[in-house]
Amino acid sequence: MNIYVLLKKTFDTEESISVSGGRIDESGAEFIINPYDEYAVEEAIQQRDKHGGTVTVVTIGDEDSEKQLRTALAMGADDAVLIDTSDDLDEGDQFTTAKILEKFFEDKEVDLILAGNVAIDEASGQVGPRLAERLNMPFITTIVKLDIEGEVAKIEKDVEGDLEKIEVSLPVLVTCQQGLNEPRYTSLPGIMKAKKKPLEQLELDDLDLDEDDVEAKTATISIFLPPKKQAGRILAGETGEQVKELVSLLSNEAKVI
Amino acid sequence: MSEKILVIGELQQGVLRKVSYETIAAAKQVNADAVILALVLGDGDLQQPAEEMIHYGANRVITVSHANLSNYTSEGYGQVIMEVMQEENPSGIIMGHTSVGKDVTPKIASRLELGLISDAVAIEKEDDQVIFTRPIYSGKAFEKKVMKDDGLLFATIRPNNISALEHDASRTGEIIAKEVDVKDLRTIVQEVIRKKTEGVDLSEAKIVIAGGRGVKSAEGFNALYELANLLGGAVGASRGACDANYCDYSLQIGQTGKVVTPDLYIAVGISGAIQHMAGMSNSKVIVAINSDEEANIFKMADYGIVGDLFEVLPLFIEELKLQGALVS
Q1: How many CB pairs under 8 A join A and B?
Q2: Which end of chain B is more exposed for a tag (fewer CB within 10 A), N or C?
Q3: Average of pLDDT values for B93-104?
Q4: Is the four-CA dihedral A226, B100, B256, B309 of positive or negative sign?
Q5: Could you say which of A219, A254, A257 has the minimum Cβ distance to residue B302?
Q6: Which of B2, B24, B22 is nearest to B91 (CA)?
Q7: Which residue of B has its CA nearest to A175?
Q8: CATH assignment, A2-214
Q9: Given this model, what pLDDT does residue B198 score?
Q10: CA distance B173 to A196
Q11: What's the pTM?
Q12: Average of pLDDT values for A113-140?
């Protein structure tokens, strides 16, 4: 089976966010594999181990994205592709990303594409479905179980807490939700092996694309932090009195009950 | 001719989701003079939800009923929405940022090579430019976005952030039942297993009572359910409580769970890990109940009670009953 994983480099979840010059300040920040994409990498490896084939991890980013790709290779992926757009693009959006990926996949034989259900930075959740549509492939988002039998994928999808059992024909694109699996940690031998695994680097040119072809359809005009929360009130006194005060504050001051 | 904006009335077990009404209000914020065209999809008689959309401000409603629309699939809904768009040629489309909205809108945007601004929490207008505010980095920051072209405006809105217009049963409008042959689906929904808690939907609840590890057991959550019932709210949980099997993952709020923005969020026995905060930090009023006065959640809370939740919750419930407090 030819299995592909779409991977995105994101801020570490623990990072605090600051804005400078109208952009998120990335200086000195730690970057990780988008947590939802880790489920995708893990699932891809498990499916390959069950059905054979190869797992190729693809990312669009800059040269630093190699680190996250190497991590995926250390987990057990076979190949990695870095589409480095840092020289060609200043701004992009989900249209841009999907268009580049569409071109990348144009000449590929694909059975299964896995992606995270959402990236924790921009959180659009658009890229997977957008790409599937361009490739004329069905897609199922927020999956929590995947069984492949021949040309059919039996999928369980999380629908805001409810569960749907779905059958879909291959090739298919799925986006992964928490609960699908437990991503493995990278082992030292895995890390050593990953250094020798192939990592292909491409630029827009290599995909016969230029900047105009992938020009974003939306623009960010400002980025700002939410207003700092005023320090709250810790109530005092006997528990019974605190509770009475809380009920009164919620109904009279905050007017929420 | 005035501008036409398409909104989708999303049915959940035959009942319209609240966010469907909010899309009408959002469309009015985009253009107060716009004709609001609503599309309601499902299987069966859709007259009543269509009328409801009109009572909440839609001018015209198209209903499409088909056996292949009884369960949502991106292919089925995609076919219908695209057909309606072709016929009606709206200048904008707005949907709720729900499981369905998140799934089908990028498909349509991709097919038609359109931009899409998802998960908007506010809409403003400046010199005729429509500006959407949306959270990024799990709500730790916000961005303002615009569509770059003059073409079709396409957005999903987060439930509970844009107030619906007032319900007015005297509002009238045209309802058209449209036939669409929904076919060639590669995706078949075999079964839907309802796991959600009874009553109020977590992502749309005005009041959320969430429990953490401090609740200590599944039984411990009973008091939270009692409180939620009393206040007409929904129960949620931190990842810690879900990992410990105190409750189902469907209740999890946080970076890898649901994002909620209720009017009132009561965090019970939750320490306030940064990943949890990402899912609830934009709640309007936050109450924290925790025995550890150092707990991070107190930094976020508007009101805090340092105390044993097993003592506080019963007193809280009793006090509410005593005062006959109701959800406003």
Answers
A1: 262
A2: N
A3: 97
A4: positive
A5: A254
A6: B2
A7: B103
A8: 3.40.50.620
A9: 61
A10: 67
A11: 0.91
A12: 96
